[in-house]
Amino acid sequence: MSEQPRYLQLRDSLMLHISNGELPAGSKLPSERELAERFGTTRVTLRQALAQLQSEGVIYRSNRRGWFVSSPRLTYEPVSDVSFTRYVADQGRVPRTEVLGIKKVAASAQVASALALELGEDVYRLRRRRFADERLVFVETIWLNPRYLPDLEKQPLEALWKLLAEVYAIQLTSKQITITPTALMNGVADALGVSSGCPGLYITRISETAEGARIEYDEEYWLNDVMTIKVNTGS
Question: Does residue 78 belong to any structural domain of this protein?
Fold first, then answer.
């Protein structure tokens, strides 16, 4: 039997340092030059080992910052009626939402169809970034139906579901969800701090009331190594 390839030997050595706590979750790995010297290997072989660990979700690369040890994956239940802030906190992590801005724009064909609007009708476009333990995990664009949300731009937009319930008396009871593997390209990749072409997940969600009023169309781009999807079907 042939000997294990050198890059897999390096992968195992690095994994040992991570699993024994020498490199805890969130910590930055030494530079590639330092690691190559420590293990007596070339940068090319080292990068193969790092890429293997990245594909397994053990480490991740942040553009211009280096390699970091990944935290445990978040468990994401797409049909749950729990907010991002709540389910991240319930898993012992620290959530944070950064609002990038909101404005009224003309609805595209895709958005108009999702929210049952006329093509070109006004729609709110809200952009946010979501963090867990200060790691950016996804970026989102939320399209909101102004027919039901007057003066939305004047409201605090970090906790949207709470805002809908407490200010507008809106309860979202039905959701249409799609989850699609994708490549994170160009502006999306830049926003997430990764190289263009990195794997990710594209999630869309159309939320409506019990009366069938379509309130929200959400587009999310997630990093591929931060989430495990869990669905409970009930008994």
Answer: yes
CATH number reported for the structural domain that contains residue 223 in this entry:
3.40.1410.10
pLDDT per residue over 32-80, tens digit each?
Answer: 999 999 999 999 999 999 999 988 889 988 877 899 998 889 998 887 7
Any domain includes 99: yes
What confidence tier does 235 reach under pLDDT thresholds 50, 70, 90? low
- Last residue in a domain, options 69, 86, 108: 69
Long-range contacts of residues 65-70, Cβ cutoff 8 Å, at least 24 apart: 65/28, 65/193, 66/28, 66/29, 66/31, 67/28, 67/29, 67/32, 68/26, 68/27, 68/28, 68/29, 68/135, 69/18, 69/23, 69/24, 69/25, 69/26, 69/27, 69/29, 70/25, 70/225, 70/226
End-to-end alpha carbon distance in the chain:
49
Contact 212, 225 (CB under 8 A): no
Per residue in 143-186, pLDDT (tens digit) is 999 999 999 999 999 999 899 999 999 999 999 999 999 999 99
Domain coverage including residue 152: 74-229
Nearest CA to 111 out of 220, 214, 234, 19 is that of: 214
Instruction: Give per-residue pLDDT as tens, 21-33.
Output: 899 988 999 999 9
CA distances from 147 to 95, 118, 141, 199 (A): 30, 12, 19, 36
